[in-house]
Amino acid sequence: MRILIVTQYFWPEEFRINDIAKYFAKKGHQVDVVTGLPNYPSEEIFNEYKKNKKKYNNYVGANVIRVPIFLRGSGSPFKLFLNYLSFVLSAIIIGSYKIRKKKYDIIFTFATSPITVALPSIFFSFLKNCKHVLWVLDIWPDILRELKIINNQFILYVLKKIVNYIYSKSDIILAQSKGFENIISENVADKSKIYYFPAWSENLSKNNEEDILPDLKKYKNKFNIVFTGNIGEAQNFENIIRAAEITKNEKDLQWLIIGTGRKLDKFTELVNNKNIKNFLFLGHKPLSQIKTFHNLASILLVSLADGKFLSSTIPGKLQTYLKSNKFILGFSKGSSAQLIKESNTGISVDPSSPTALAKTIINLKKNPKIVKEVSNNNYGTEYLKKNFNKKLLLSELEKYFLNNIIKIKIIKNTKNIPFDKNFSLSGLNLAFLGYFIKNKIKLNSNIYLWPDGIFYKRFFYNKKVKKIPGRKIIDEIKIPNNIKNIYIFGNLNFTSKKYLQNLYKRKVKHIPLPYEDVNYLYKKYFDFKFLDSDLIFLTLPTPKQEQLANLIIRNNNFFKIICVGGAINMASGVEKPVPPIIEKMNCEFLWRLRTDTIRRLRRLIVTSFFYILGELLFKFRNMDTKILNEK
Fold first, then answer.
1. Above 80 in pLDDT, residue 631?
2. Where would I find the H helices in 480-543?
3. Which CATH number belongs to the domain containing residue 322 in this structure?
4. Assigned domain for 295 exists
5. Phi (first) and psi of residue 478, to 5 degrees
6. Where are the beta strands (DSSP E) in 417-456?
7. pLDDT per residue over 313-345, tens digit each?
8. For residue 409, what are the β-bridge partners?
9. Of 33, 54, 168, 391, which is least surrounded by CB within 10 A?
10. Which residues make Cβ contacts (< 8 Å) with residue 396, sequence separation at least 6?
11. What pTM was computed for the model?
C-alpha cells in the first residue's frame, strides 16, 4: 500500500501516530508523513531537531515531510489558533507541492485536537483519488462548549459545520471510545463507516531512577498519588487541588503531577496560595522516564471534568496505566470509569466531589491490601492484552486500509465467482459508477463486479472481457454443494421464486423489503447472523442493494452476496426480455424505461451526470483494476 499520514504532531514528539507509521513502514508499505515542526509541548522547536534536521526526515523507513507552522509559544488562545490554522494552510499549500508526484491508496488522519487537521487530508484525498480514514481522538466542537473555552454561538455553529463536513468527507471514521462512536453516529448519515478503534499502551522503558530524580528516595516510602499527562480544565485540576487541600496534613501522603499545560502557572499559584506542601508539579518528562514514576506510584490518578462529551473520552494515559499493574483511581464518569470497573483495576468517584476524592484516597492509604490486589493479580496487563493489544489493533487498522483501497475487481464469467471466500458481487454499469462517484457506493476488498452495460469497457477496453447480462448470472451460476440456504431480500414474485427453486434445487427463503432507509431495513430484517452455507440475493435497485450489502459485510463473519436488481424476474420470464438488437447495442437501460418511466429516467439522469462528473474530475484516472483469476 501507498499510505499518506497527516498529523500535526510526529516524532520526535511522542504520540501514538509514531507507532502507526513504524508498523506500516516495517510491514513494507510505502509511508509518507505530512507533519509540522516538532515543538509540542515546548514553546520552541526542539533543539535536537534544529541541530540536525536531516536526521528527522526518515522514521524507521517512513518518509517525513515537514511544513512550516506558527509555533504554539506560551499556548495562549490566539497563538494556538495561529498554530492550528498555520498547519492547515501550510499542509494544503506547501504539502501539496511536496507530494505532487506521489500516488497514494490511503490518506490517514491522526485527529487529535483540533480535528481541522483533517482538512488537508480531505484535499489530498481529492487530489490523489483515494480513500480518507479519520481517527477521532477528541469530539469537536462539543468539548470546547462543555469546557466553556468557546461560548460564542456563531463560532460554535461554524465549527460544527466544519466538523460535519470532515465527517461527511471521510470514508472511514475510527472512534477512540464507544462513547465517541455513539456521538459521531448522531452526526453522520452513513453510520456503517464508523468503527470503534481504541488506543493502546505506550512503550515505557526502564531507566536508572537515581539519574531521573536525584531525591527519589524520599518518596519511596510515601503513599504516592501519581498523575501523568496534560494539565488543564478538561483534567478537572481545580477539584483535584481542592481534594489535595483536604489531604495536605495527611502524614506520608504525596501528590506527584507529571506533565504540563496552558494553565500550569495558574494551578501552581493556586497550590502555593493554599500552602499544600505535599503537592508537586514536576513538569513535562519524556516518555522514557514515565515508567519510573509508575513504579513509584501507590495509585495512579486519571481525571476528567464532568460532562457528556468529556465522559465519553478514554484518556490515552489509561491504557498505559493498565500496563503498570497499579491501582487506578478514576476521578471521572462515563467511559473511563466503566473501563476501570471492567478491568478490576480500581474505583472511580464523582468528578464534581473533591471531598469524595480526598476520602477515597485516605481510605486507600489506610487499606494497602486493596491497592496491592491489582498488582498481585496482574489485573491491568490481563485486561490490556484482551482489549488493547497493540499488535492486534494495528493489524485491524491495516485491514481497514486494505478493505478501502479503490480497486475494480471483475469476473470474466460465472465460473469465476469466488464461492471459496466472502464476497459481494454487483454489475459494473452506469448506475454503479454514477452512484460510486456520488459516494453512495463503497468499493472494498470483498466487492467483485461482473461486466454489465457498456461502461465496463472504460476500464477493460483492451482486454478479453465480454459483457454478462444479469439474467445470465442467475441462469449459469454453479452453486457449490456446501451452499444449503438461499435468501432473497427484496422483490420476488411467486413465479420467480419457483423458478429459482427448480433451477438451484434448494429451498429459497424470500424476505420482502419495504421502501425504507437501508439502516432501518438492516436493523429490522437482518436480526440474525449468516452462515458460510448461506447465499444471499439482493433484488433492490442500485445503490440500495450495495449499501445493504455493505452492512451485511460489516456485521457478519460469513457472507456470499449477489446484488442482482431485477435480473431474477428477467431470467424467470416474468419481465419481458430485452430484444437482441438493443442488447447488442448495450442499451438495455433504454428498454427498461418503458416501465416505471419517471423513476428510471430520473435515476438515468442522476447517474449519467455523476459519471460524467467523475470523468471530468479524473476520478477514474489510474484506478486499479483486476480481472479475477487472470495471471
1. no
2. 494-504, 518-525
3. 3.40.50.2000
4. yes
5. -105, 100
6. 423-428, 447-451
7. 888 888 899 988 899 999 988 888 999 999 999
8. 626
9. 54
10. 197
11. 0.78
